[in-house]
Amino acid sequence: MRYFPGNTVFCLLLIFLMLLPAALPVQAVTPERLGLDLVDVAALDAAILSDLKYATTDNFTGQVLYPSARCLLRAPVAWRLLQVQRDLRSQGLGLKVFDCYRPLAVQQKMWSIVPDENYVANPATGSRHNRGASVDVGLVDSAGRELPMPSKFDEFSERSHLDFADAPADTLRNRQTLQAAMRKEGFLPVTTEWWHFDAPDWRNFALADADSRLVPGPATEQVLAVAEPAPGRVSSALWGLEKTPQGWRNVFGPIPVVLGRSGIAAFEQKREGDGKTPRGVFTLGPVFGYAATAPTRMPYRQATAEDAWVDEPSSPRYNQWVKGIPAKESHEKMRRADGLYQLGAVIGYNTDPVMPGRGSAIFLHVWKGPGQPTSGCVAMALPDLERLVGWLDPARQPRIILGYRGE
Q1: What residue segments make up the domains of the chain, in order of their start?
Q2: Which architecture characterizes domain 31-209 according to CATH?
Q3: Mean pLDDT, the chain, integer
C-alpha cells in the first residue's frame, strides 16, 4: 500500500472537526424572536370568548394552521381590546376573537393558497397580524351566543365589505355596533372585512415569527431561553432576559450548554429514557445543591445522601424528590459522586400533573464538559450556573423556554 502523508493529515483534520461541538449561535436572541412582548388575552380577561379559526379546520384553507389556540397580542393592543370588552359589557354584549397574532410562517402558507392582497397580506411585507397589532372579532350576546353578521368570518365576497347593505337589518345593526365599539378605542377598520381591526400604532411593532406555544404568561418577568441545537448536535446556548418598565432586555448570554443525547423532543413527545430534552415553557425551582445554603433568592433544598428522585413510571411517587433511598423503585440519587448535582435547579417539566412515562428528573445542573450530552437535562459550567441561580427571583415568576428555533 502506498503512503500518502497528505491524505493522513486530511483524515485527522476531518475527524477533529467532526468531534467538535456545534458552534454556539452568535446572534443574540431578541424578545421579539421569543414573542415576549405578546400577551395572552384570555389571561387578561377570560370573559372575551375565543374561537381561533386557524387553530381548527374551520377556515378558508380547510387546514389547521396554528399549533395552539392562544389569542396573543402586543400589550398595548390587548389593553385597547379589553376596554372595548368593558364598553360592550355595559350594553349586554361581548367580543369573540377569531384571529390575533399570526406567525410569519402561517402567513406564507395562506399566501400560497390565496395570493390576493385584497384578502391576504403578502408575506414579503408581512401582515399586521404578524406584528400582533391586528385582531379579528365578532359580537356575542350576554349568554355568549354569536350574533349574526352580513357574512361569515373570512368570506371572500362583497358581503364582507363595510358598505354592503343588502343584508337583514339585524346583521347590519350588529356590524355597526361592532364598528362603533372598536373605533371608539382607536381601532382602524378594513373596508373589505367587517371583522378585521388594526391598532392605530401598528407600525410601532416589528414583524414576529414566534411559536405561540413558547410564549410565557403575562406575569413572567424573567426568562431563560435555550435554542434548539443543530440536527445531530447536543451543544446549544442559553440566554437570560428580564422585563423592565421600558420592555424586555437581554441580561446575559450566550452561555454554552449541552442538552439530551437525543436532542430536543417534539411538543408533548418526551418519554422516559428517550434521552431527549423536553420542548416548552416551564417553571423553575427549587434550586438544590450539596451545600447547606446557596447564594440564591429561589427556594433552596440541600441534597443529602438520603435524597433520591423516583423515575419509575409505575410508582405513585414518579417524578418526585423523596427522602430515603427507595428499595425497589427505579431512582437516581440526588447527591451524586460525580458532582453534577453540586448545584442545580428543578425544571418544572411533567410536574403538574405528573403523567406516568412522560419523563422525569429534568434539571439545570453542572456539565461533564463541552459537547458531553445529558440524559435530557440542560447542563453548563459551574460558574455559569452560579450566576444564573443568583439572578433568578421567584417574585418575578421566572420561566425557561426550551427549544425555540434560532435564526
Answers
A1: 31-209, 216-404
A2: 2-Layer Sandwich (3.30)
A3: 92
Give the model confidence (pLDDT) of 349-371 as tens digits: 999 999 999 999 999 999 999 99
Q: What is the pTM of this model?
A: 0.86
Reported confidence tier of residue 405, pLDDT bands at 50, 70, 90? confident
Q: What is the DSSP letter of 179?
A: H
- Strand 235-244 and strand 222-227: the pairing is antiparallel
DSSP code for 75:
H
306 noted as active-site residue = no
**Residues 198/202/207/208 CA torsion (nearest 10 deg):** -70
Distance between CA 399 and CA 281 in Å, rounded?
Answer: 7
All three cell numbers of 355, joined, read 403523567
Give the HSE-up count for residue 59: Cα atoms under 13 Å, Cβ half-sphere. Answer: 19
Over residues 36-46, mean pLDDT:
94
Write out the H or E segment, with its range, that includes residue 170.
helix 169-184
pLDDT higher than 60, residue 15: no
pLDDT of residue 121: 87
Given the residues 185, 193, 228, 272, the one annotated as active site: 193
* Angle CA 172–200–90, to nearest 5: 50
Burial status of residue 114 (CB atoms within 10 A of its CB: 0-12, 13-18, 19 or more): middle
Omega before 256 cis (within 30°)? no
